[in-house]
């Protein structure tokens, strides 16, 4: 994705939601690029919306630039910052949005080439998107790994820690350490104050006579397998997009993302110019030339779009309040 950023020229014949409905009916290889905006109706904040975005909240708590929370160096320096904030974006795994249901409808109609999601809430899986149709560009909370021994566990193993704002330590590291001869010198027995040894009559000799503490080995810290700034995207992203999808795609729909973070933000500029592009979001976007921009709540827009496409709508697609 290193090629120069080139502005794609708009195709003039597509402009309206009815044009978009016609494209949905006729195109078979639809690439859908999604962002945090498709989960906000579930109460999961997006990142950059003024006032409600996660980064505004992080800045209000005095953490400087919001993105610092997701810098891998920052996490390794002090994981407690991430653990104190991540509860806000931890998925509510019990329901998905009508926009997720729209992705599932495309898949059911055999029109979904691939959903490239930047979201880490893993709700695409809950909505029934097949793993073969899904690329989680920024990883997800589905699993978590130890920063030290790389041990991988299901993400839900650390959800309680995240919700309790408690840094999760690697249980395998702890287990291995418990089996090793302790780095500490053997505990010295303090002269018993009484003939009966009680639990706390043994002194901790990790501080030797001149009081220096031993540098004891520490267990690794668990990190959700989400892609932090400074980390590589999964290889599947590049392989699938560069080697397969971009040669076969015949319609691109971008939903609920500000397209501010590379390399996802550059994908549209590496697609054939003749492929129609549709953008669905609350706010318009200037740095990519979309043929059609449908502005509003994504749940409502996709609902209306499917109505005009003449597709029978499943109840999950009904937006709140409609
Ligand atoms: N309906 C339609 N659009 C919405 C809705 C909604 N209900 N809610 C929010 N939006 C729009 C916002 O107006 C904004 O344009 O979705 C977009 C969300 O943009 P961001 O908050 O920047 O989120 P996203 O684009 O997914 O961020 C990309 O940045 O920090 C990194 O790793 C993080 O994956 C994330 C990446």
Automatic annotation (TrEMBL):
It comes from the Eukaryota. The active site is at residue 138. The keyword NAD applies. Its cofactor is Zn(2+). Signal peptide: none annotated. Keywords: Metal-binding, NAD, Transferase, Zinc. Belongs to the sirtuin family. Class I subfamily. This is Deacetylase sirtuin-type domain-containing protein. It comes from Meristemomyces frigidus.
């Amino acid at each position: 994705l290193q090629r120069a950023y080139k502005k794609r020229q708009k195709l003039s014949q597509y402009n309206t939601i009815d044009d978009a409905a016609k494209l949905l009916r006729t195109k078979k290889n639809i690439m859908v690029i999604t962002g945090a905006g498709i989960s906000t109706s579930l109460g999961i904040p997006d990142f950059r919306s003024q006032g409600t975005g996660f980064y505004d909240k992080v800045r209000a708590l005095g953490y400087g630039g919001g993105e610092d929370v997701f810098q891998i160096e920052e996490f390794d320096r002090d994981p407690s910052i991430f653990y104190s904030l991540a509860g806000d974006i931890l998925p509510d795994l019990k329901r998905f949005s009508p926009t997720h249901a729209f992705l599932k409808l495309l898949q059911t109609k055999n029109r979904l080439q691939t959903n490239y999601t930047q979201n880490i809430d893993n709700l695409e899986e809950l909505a029934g998107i097949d793993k073969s149709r899904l690329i989680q560009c920024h990883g997800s909370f589905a699993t978590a790994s130890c920063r030290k021994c790389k041990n991988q566990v299901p993400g839900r193993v650390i959800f309680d820690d995240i919700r309790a704002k408690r840094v999760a330590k690697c249980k395998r590291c702890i287990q291995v350490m418990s089996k090793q001869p302790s780095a500490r010198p053997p505990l010295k027995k303090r002269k018993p104050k009484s003939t009966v040894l009680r639990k706390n009559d043994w002194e901790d000799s990790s501080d030797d006579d001149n009081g220096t503490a031993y540098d004891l080995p520490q267990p690794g810290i668990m990190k959700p397998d989400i892609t932090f700034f400074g980390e590589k995207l999964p290889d599947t992203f590049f392989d699938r997009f560069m080697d397969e999808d971009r040669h076969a795609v015949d319609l691109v729909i971008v939903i609920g993302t500000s397209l501010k973070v590379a390399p996802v933000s550059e994908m549209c500029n590496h697609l054939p110019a003749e492929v129609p592009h549709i953008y669905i979001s609350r706010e318009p976007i200037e740095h990519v030339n979309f043929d059609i921009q449908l502005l509003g709540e994504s749940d409502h827009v996709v609902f209306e779009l499917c109505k005009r496409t003449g597709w029978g709508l499943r109840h999950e697609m009904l937006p709140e309040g409609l």
